[in-house]
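User: Please go through the entry that follows and flag anything odd:
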Amino acid sequence: MSWPDNEIVRFWKIPNNVIENTRADFCLTYFLKTISRNKIQIMIRRGYFKISGSLLKSSQCLKPGDIVEITKPDLRSDYIKKIEEIKIPIIFENDNLLILNKPPNLLIHPTAEYTYGTLTNWLKKKYPNQNIKPCHRLDKETTGILICAKNHDTEIKIRNDFFLAKIKKSYLALVTGCMLNTISCVRSLRLQGKQGLVSIKMIEDSINGLKSETKFIPIKYYKEKNQTLILCKPKTGRQHQIRAHLALEGHPVVGDKLYSMGELFFDLFTKEKLNLSSAVNCYHMLHAYEIEFWLNGKEYKFKAESSLIEDVKDNVFLNSVLL
């Protein structure tokens, strides 16, 4: 691996209270307390750590007195180029609002792994003199409508309306199997936490979960692939609600690496231990299609186009069931 000149470098001496021959990935959690062991393993595989001039391995044993070097490439030199490569269609813009059609595989906010190539940094680059903020979130792989606020009052109003379920939303999803009839799914959901391999997975729990409700309306069945295009109308806004509800109803979203392919697959995928074949979707088929809300006494309603609906965008039934 070649090391760029513009590096952020820190050195850590393994303290005396560390047990000798402790695995490197365990040991580094002592220094990087806000980063999980899984993410530390990813950073190690990407070559962020060295010891005695050589790349560190997760299984390598460390002992008190060892000097570990973290050499994280300073991505600021690539910042402008990467942000300019992100293409985000603008659906609507005025003095208060910016409505975007979010592309797939784009995080809203920076994380420990993704520092610059995010939607919030795209906003900073495109609108350098404004403090524009997303008012809600979409999963990294989910596409579609995202409301951004151009001022604090608008942000507070939109966020509050989301919390109070005053904002009407419709999603499109391509799901596995044939859904023949409308489903009104009411299932209580909660985070799985330490009960399973993937802590962020939402599971059904009628006792400790929060009531969650989604209406699913079938639009078109593709017999050759055994997939159904459906309209999803969430009444509540729990994490992963649509994806979790569809999986529980036996119709997981096509390409969903957690709720369709399982926790083991998702765990290996997030650890970058899988080489995905062309048969696996590079992102799940869930699209925030339409949204309706009120602001300053005016009603707003927007749609976000998607490749999911190219062959049915003029469908009379589709138009009749939307908001």
